[in-house]
Amino acid sequence: MEKGDMVLADYIGKADGEIFDLTVEEKAQEEGMSEDRDFKPIPVLIGKNYVIEGFEEALLDMEVGDQKEVEISSDKAYGERDSGAVETYPEKEFKKQDVQVRRGEELMIGNRRGKVVSKGSGRVRIDFNHPLAGKDLKYDIRVKEKVEDDEEIAKYIMDYRIGHGSEDMEFDGDKVKVPGTHSHGDHEHELPEEVREKLTEEITEYTGFEEIEFTE
């Protein structure tokens, strides 16, 4: 594989010998893991940080149909733990908002997700490190397919960046029409400018389409 290729890859990821994520349905059933999600290969636009650095490096050494196990050190995975990312908040701030805080629970503070590591003396300590920070990981990776069709590549870029919406894209000559809003629960949201820029940059750079129009 080379930078700029769009590939579909299956994987089983382990940390400390335990599976933390996977895309292989048979393995998920075997392990008795949750079935409330679609298990399917993930799209990876190589060179664009769709996956962690060590995963991407492994793909560069693989061809379609290859399968291999790789060990990825924490510096090429989710980085080292940062003690500065553990912050203390007054418990009364949560009570004001009627939020019950329990040790081990995950909370969103602003746009950051953290885990409650301790609670006492009117203070709550929250760890904003990625749950896999500081850990070396093992991945079993299989390259299922290299995506060659421009429309498919554009759709996978959309699915990666937004999580859905590719079914509403329209293709007209060298133009792609992309919905300018997306649904989240019961609400419609405008696509943020940053997301529009990423979609425009990646679709025009890695497909033959030259123009992206966001339809309102």
Your description of this structure?
This protein has 216 residues and is α+β, with helices and mostly antiparallel strands. The protein folds into three domains: 1-80 and 132-147, Chitinase A, domain 3 (Roll), CATH 3.10.50; 83-127, Thrombin, subunit H (Beta Barrel), CATH 2.40.10; 149-216. 22% of the residues lie in helices and 37% in strands. It has five helices and 14 strands. It has helices at 25-30, 53-60, 91-96, 150-162, 193-206; strands at 6-15, 18-22, 42-45, 67-72, 86-90, 106-109, 112-120, 123-127, 137-147, 170-172, 175-179, 181-184, 187-190, 211-215. The strands form four sheets. Strands 1, 2, 3, 4 and 9 form a five-stranded antiparallel sheet that branches. A four-stranded antiparallel sheet has the order 5-8-7-6. β10 and β11 form a beta hairpin. α4 (150-162) packs antiparallel against α5. The two termini are 37 Å apart. The model has no long low-confidence stretch (mean pLDDT 92).
CATH topology of the largest domain: Chitinase A, domain 3
Number of helical segments with 4 or more residues: 5
Q: What is the string of SSEs from the N terminus onward? A: EEHEHEEHEEEEHEEEEHE
Anisotropy-based shape: globular
Distance between the termini: 37 Å
Number of domains: 3
Number of strands: 14
- Into which percent range does the helicity of residues fall? 10-25%
The low-confidence parts are: none
Identify the CATH class of the largest domain.
Answer: Alpha Beta
What integer value in Å does the Rg equal?
20 Å
SS content category? alpha+beta
